[in-house]
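FORM 7B: Structural annotation worksheet

SECTION A. Query
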Amino acid sequence: MPSISTKKRKARTMQTRKLKTQMKSTAFIEIAST
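SECTION B. Predicted structure
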């Protein structure tokens, strides 16, 4: 059974990954729109 800290760490990595992908997509859209 994984500990709570491990779960938190996993959630955080997922959040950062989501943010990174969002930033990438927004930057791509900005480049495409110009």
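SECTION C. Observations
The mean pLDDT is 88. The radius of gyration is 15 Å.

SECTION D. Sign-off
Analyst initials: ____
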